[in-house]
Amino acid sequence: MAARQRRRTRTGNAPQRVRLGREAPGVVRHGPPVTITCACGCKAKLRFGDTWTCERCGRTWDTGRIPRAEYDDIRRTQLRFRMLPVIVGLLVVVLSAFFTLTGNARSVVLLLPVALLSWFVFLRGPHRRRYYAAIAKRRKWTLRGER
Description:
The chain is built from four helices and four strands. It is mainly alpha-helical.
């Protein structure tokens, strides 16, 4: 029995995926969190459709009042901008496999540093700026808290 199968039978479910950086649970599949700032200064990050009650003043916030079409537009924008790093990574893997199979192992040794350098020095900054600009153009909502 493989180690993965043993782990699944022992715990009864699949092992949890390790989150990277500040990533919240469900961000990739369910969209980015909605940040609520209460008038008293409390902040909360909620999923679309969740409700939250402020601990200080007792106001209730409902993110379900955000129009679904507008939230889906933000989600599509986020997914579109997540695709470029995935495509660049897959391209590097495919080129590495091609060079290895054709007997050009030296090319792989050159490809990996060049790919990392080009991503972190030339592509990542402009990509982030375009992403932040695309998100900033989207509509922001003003929800009212209910007592």
